Amino acid sequence: MELKGIHHVSAITANARANKDFYTNILGLRLVKKTVNQDTPSMYHLFYADETGSPGTDLTFFEIPRAGKTYQGNNSISATSLRVPNDKALSYWQERFKRMSVPHEEIKERAGRLTLAFNDFEGQRLILVSDENNKGVKGGTPWGKSPIPKEFGIVGLGPSQLTIANIEGTVDLFTNVLGFRKKGQYASSVKGQPDIVVYETGEGGTGAEIHLEHRLDVTEERPGRGSVHHIALRVDNEEEFHAWIDKLNEHNIAHSGFVDRFYFRSVYLKDPNGITIELATDGPGFDIDEELEHLGESLALPPFLEHRREEIEARLKPLD
């Protein structure tokens, strides 16, 4: 029983309309599901992914219109990376970001790969990472109707970086409970701080890594627009998913219990630093209620919310 890698990352936006514009028109991702937060259906939950909404390619956003500014700091998911096919793609993106006034850094090496860090319009911390030498989990297929040339398109999620105070507790959770293994480490960009340590699962590679940054020199992050809410890890199927719940129980890890998200099955837990981690099944998938060619075109609601459609739609502002 082994987790396959990163399933999705869920973040916060204060403006769903501007969010859709940035992630589809600037980054070229496909909006594969336009739905609502199942726990708070008055807010949008938008899912961006590859051509077919493959597991491991999915970056999602909850819209919280009154979300304040994020004060960056400890005990947070401090960076989300997005995979591109090769090193050449990074040069394309660097020029695109310059032309479109997207804040970005220079191309630099992280963990043996070339990367390009940038921010969205709300300060979301993002990193493009090259799959040039990836030998692990395969990426997805760029959206065919994307404004980005296919050879440079985003093919999925790369490593997530966790910035934490209690690194021993998080390492124990990831290695002894979730089955990750240490892969290596690389120098922090912050002078005088310990190396960032890389852990991987499953086939390994760009789509199956967590990078742990140990910091004691910063205060705890105060999340808001532009912050990450949680990271989800891939479980192959529902039978294995229930075995994971049993394993969490065996280790006395507090968790949410089984949650049916309709498009996948989930269980939520927290690491010792309070970061929310989700385990999610690869299926059933986003085409369970929409045809592949029409994903994300209309408001999709899980069956238990369908009877409230009129009320929910009345509260949501159009995205176009």
3D structure, described in words:
With 320 residues, this protein is an alpha+beta fold. It has one domain (6-315): 2,3-Dihydroxybiphenyl 1,2-Dioxygenase, domain 1, CATH 3.10.180.10. 17% of the residues lie in helices and 32% in strands. The protein has 5 helices and 16 strands. The chain has helices spanning 16-26, 87-99, 167-177, 238-250, 309-315, and strands at residues 6-13, 30-36, 44-49, 58-63, 76-84, 108-110, 113-119, 125-130, 156-164, 181-186, 196-200, 209-214, 228-235, 259-260, 264-270, 276-284. An 8-stranded mixed beta sheet has the order 2-3-4-1-13-16-15-14. Strands 6-7-8-5-9-12-11-10 form an 8-stranded mixed beta sheet, covered by helices on one side. The longest helix has 13 residues, at 87-99. It comes from Siminovitchia thermophila. InterPro entries: Extradiol_RC_dioxygenase, Glyas_Bleomycin-R_OHBP_Dase, Glyas_Fos-R_dOase_dom, VOC_core. This is Glyoxalase family protein.
Q: Please, what is the CATH homologous superfamily?
A: 2,3-Dihydroxybiphenyl 1,2-Dioxygenase, domain 1
> What's the CATH architecture?
Roll
CATH class designation = Alpha Beta
Alpha carbon gap, first and last residue: 43 Å
- Number of helices in the DSSP assignment: 5
How many strands?
16
Rg over C-alpha atoms, rounded to the nearest angstrom: 19 Å
Query: Which strand-content bin applies to the residues?
Result: 25-35%
